[in-house]
User: What shape does this take?
Amino acid sequence: MAFLQGSNALYEISSGVTGRVKESSVTNGQYVKEDVLYVLDIDTLSDTIVRYQNELEASKERLEILSAYEKSLEGDVKELDAYTDNPYYEEFANRRSFCLQI
Assistant: This one.
């Protein structure tokens, strides 16, 4: 994030992605118009995209197992057992066993 001083205000410059600034075409105190101010490192941007895709996939898997877990608590045990390959299966199978013991 950067700040630019306009003639009447201070403006915040930010990007929708995380990354490393590779180049800056402005210097402190320089007058600028609409132009390229910073260039981001594309490799870092690609890493960010991959990280967000992995987080999305993990969220989908967690949502699937949560839905099956809810159904298993309502009595449909086979629903949860259909997700034994889900990375969160053991966690929710253990939770279900604990709930049934109470």
Notes: Residues 59-102 form one domain.
